[in-house]
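**Sequence with structure:**
===
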Amino acid sequence: MTTEISDIAHEADECRLLLRATPRGARLARRLVGAQLAAWGIPYGCALSQDIELVVGELAANAVVHGLVPGRDFEVVLRYDGRRVLVEVSDARGEKTPPEGLAPADPWSAEGGRGLLVVQALAREWGVAARVPGKTVWAVLGRGGDAGADPGQGPAVG
């Protein structure tokens, strides 16, 4: 039996998860994020917790499906400043970025294509930042003022 977790690091306001780029790793990311949110005082099952878990699930699934490089893991980073949670999901495929304009998926016939529409609907803001190797797709959820996004770098939270 192999483990899907490569590494976990926790600080008071940051959590980093390095997970195998498999469907099981994506599911595990969502569950571990729920536990971390509860540890930060964001109750399991509340609207914010559910929204963050859904966004992590969508971004992790995209990292596994579209960002897969055999033998490479994906990383989930959460940062919490007491008002907002920054979610970052990084993979090794920098050339496969989300499309500029998200076209609405046909709800009756499309088998996929809704993940980033869900992220866009739930997040205060979201974007993509280049990294070596690959890319990071980030989203900010929660309450409060401007998250201070810097295009191409992601927002400053925490």
